[in-house]
Amino acid sequence: MADEFDEETLAFAHRMFDLARGGRTAELSEYVDAGLPVNMTNDKGDTLLILAAYHSHPETVRALLARGADHSRTNDRGQTALAAATFRRCTEAMTALLDAGADPAHGGPSAREVAHFFDLPEMLALLDRTGTP
Fold this sequence. Notes:
Blueprint: H1 7-22, H2 25-33, H3 48-54, H4 58-66, H5 81-87, H6 91-99, H7 111-117, H8 121-128
């Protein structure tokens, strides 16, 4: 797939993923508002939302969700943004994702499985507030 894009396009895409990783909410939001696909993925299937959640940027997570980011998307390893936020113990991002309807049992490993595996009772308690088994 990468062979289909020229160097300039690839550099731009990498920069957008770096904005998500770096929590550069305002700049990333401007690009999304101008037409950047909010659910674009990198070569590992990571979405902007997954990267923002994994790097503990709740403001970016909220901005992407407000712009229609799909919280149920999984990367190539089956991980979701909620599982990433759970692993990183970012309660603000978790709350934003849960409020948007993210399912703690979705993905593999799911957010709930991550909390169990890494013995994160405080994260499990937050996930359990949804009542999902």
